[in-house]
Fold these 3 entries.
Entry 1:
Amino acid sequence: MSYPDPRYLSDRGEVSALHRPAPAEPDTGFVGASTISYVATEEATGGEYGLYKVDMGPQTMGAQEHFHRTISESFYVLSGEVQFYNGERWIKGGEGDFLYVPAGGLHAFQNDADEPLSMLMIFSPGAPREEYFEKASEYVERNREELKGFQVRHDTYFTDMLDD
């Protein structure tokens, strides 16, 4: 395996690092007892990846079984315990565990434990996931067709919606 083709062609480096101080509060609420903090959006990384911190309360449903067609998704557990669905079965993840899901890979997650969970989610390449996080709960309350359109627009295909 080799490195990708160069994307920066100058002989000298440039000042281009981005520092974002930690926010006082998470950027958004989400369905249930979860919050999502935007660590690095696709806008901030020029579309290379998106990095988000997810904090879930005890006994909190996460995402049901789904897949993405254009992006991979990775999870890194910071603290607590999570149940990951790897497309075949549920597996327990704990502090330091990592799960990579390539495009097309079925996956789901939830916190079945009596303690909170904190994990990082990485989408690659970066995609504008913020609207999905901010408005998903609103669309759940709408009719099934509007919800499905919203999910497809955000490259999220829930297996229970595929037969519609």
Note: DSSP finds two helices and eleven strands in the chain.
Entry 2:
Amino acid sequence: MWEQQRYIDVVISDEKSGKRLGVKCKFQATSGTAEEKIPATIQDMEHWPIPGIVVIDGEGFSKNMQGYLMSTGKVVWFSDLEDWLRLYFGL
């Protein structure tokens, strides 16, 4: 079996609780392949050593893909990220 290198774009840590979160970032300005890769990224996150989310932004995500991504519970829009992080870390 091939070993795959996995990269987390950003790791956010709370020093008090020790809670950590991996963040993968995806931007889609126009329709294209970025939205097609996100489902694989969500599956890949299951192999991360810490919990993770995918942060998305841009006008290029189709309505169908937006619905799917939001239904996973693993994707958040960049505009909602601050509120999401406050809830996750209990701030």
Note: The chain has a mean pLDDT of 89.
Entry 3:
Amino acid sequence: MFVEAVLYRYRAGIPWRDLPGRFEDFRVIHTRFSRWSKTCVWERVFQHLADDADNEYAPD
């Protein structure tokens, strides 16, 4: 749910405080997002996704 909240925020282009209630307390989401950013977790997640890309959509 946390990652979904982060993606929603960036897709919608809204401030953290405007996250819908279904994502729970926006302060908790923002705090975890900040921690993940400082400890390079996002970088590792995106690197893993890039390394494991199946590229099914790309023509041969």
Note: The radius of gyration is 14 Å.
